[in-house]
Design brief:
Strand content: under 5%
Order of helices and strands: HHHHHHHHHHHHHH
CATH class: Mainly Alpha
CATH architecture: Orthogonal Bundle
Number of helices: 14
Low-confidence stretches: none
Helix content: over 70%
Structural class: mainly alpha
CATH superfamily: ABC transporter involved in vitamin B12 uptake, BtuC
CATH topology: ABC transporter involved in vitamin B12 uptake, BtuC
Number of domains: 1
Radius of gyration: 19 Å
Mean pLDDT: 87
Largest sheet: none
Number of strands: 0
């Protein structure tokens, strides 16, 4: 089959076109924000937050609301709760995350166990349903994604300072706690944006893997964000092509593509790749 025909065949289906657009947008948003997650060592927070929004999703389902609404409300509440619990000095952040993570995820599972006919929706939520993206979903992804990117653009310098030099942030009298809460809320919003594409179980990969690969290719943060966004968008699109032709689930396919890119980068990154070190 000619290459152009191979590329064009999936595009004949509208639901796959919507999937491509969603994967492209989510790949960019997750990857850009993911650079701060990698730099600040917040991977555990991202994974925990993805799981703790489960009660909000179940509640939204029972109330007949859009699932994204319940996920967003619970995500913001969780982010603020973790920030408040850890900022009081009683617990370190990872301990606060662990407490809230386990408690809310258990609550979500308990709510599901009392609800019938929810298995299909739950499976889509856990592992993504990229091919089930609707026009409304695309608008939600676009609006929330632009909100995240615009906020990062506005507060870029402040986020950089609190990520690299807390002492300087204090000297400059930056509202470090407010900026920290803002970053946590942005992670929550990004998770909501990405749920339809990769689901709860695979969320962490899209937040961390492209950014980790980009960190091996450059030390400059703006360039790292750009490379990470390219890797994320490529992983979304290429992963969906692989899903179509190999007949595998779309969410895992996107994540496996991103993982493959990371492995290649880890091996062959100029000057820093494993192969370069031993040659």
């Amino acid at each position: 089959m000619p290459l152009l025909d191979w590329l064009a065949e999936p595009l004949a289906y509208r639901f796959i076109m919507r999937g491509f657009m969603a994967a492209f947008m989510v790949g960019i948003v997750c990857s850009v924000l993911g650079t701060f997650i990698v730099l600040r060592g917040m991977a555990f927070f991202g994974d925990a937050l993805a799981h703790t929004i489960l009660p909000g999703v179940v509640a939204a389902y029972l109330l007949g609301w859009p699932l994204a609404v319940g996920a967003l409300i619970m995500g913001v509440i969780t982010a603020v709760g973790i920030g408040a619990l850890s900022s009081q000095g009683y617990f370190k952040e990872d301990t606060a995350i662990g407490i809230i993570f386990v408690g809310l995820f258990a609550l979500g599972v308990a709510m599901i166990s009392a609800t019938r006919n929810y298995s299909v929706d739950l499976a889509h939520f856990l592992f993504g349903n990229l091919l089930g993206v609707s026009n409304n979903d695309l608008w939600v992804i676009l609006i929330l994604g632009l909100l995240v990117l615009f906020t990062i653009f506005i507060f870029y310098k402040e986020f950089v300072v609190i990520s690299f030099d807390k002492t300087l942030a204090t000297t400059l009298r930056l509202p470090t706690e407010l900026l920290r809460y803002l970053l946590l809320i942005l992670i929550a919003i990004t998770i909501v944006v990405s749920l339809q594409v990769v689901g709860i179980a695979l969320m962490l990969a899209m937040l961390v893997t492209p950014a980790a690969a980009a960190s091996l290719l450059t030390r400059r943060l703006p360039v790292m964000m750009g490379i990470s966004a390219v890797i994320g968008a490529f992983s979304g699109v290429a992963g969906l092509y692989a899903s179509y032709y190999l007949n595998i689930a779309s969410g895992p396919s996107v994540v496996l593509t991103a993982t493959a890119v990371f492995i290649l980068t880890f091996l062959f990154a100029p000057q820093r790749g494993l192969v370069w070190r031993y040659t």
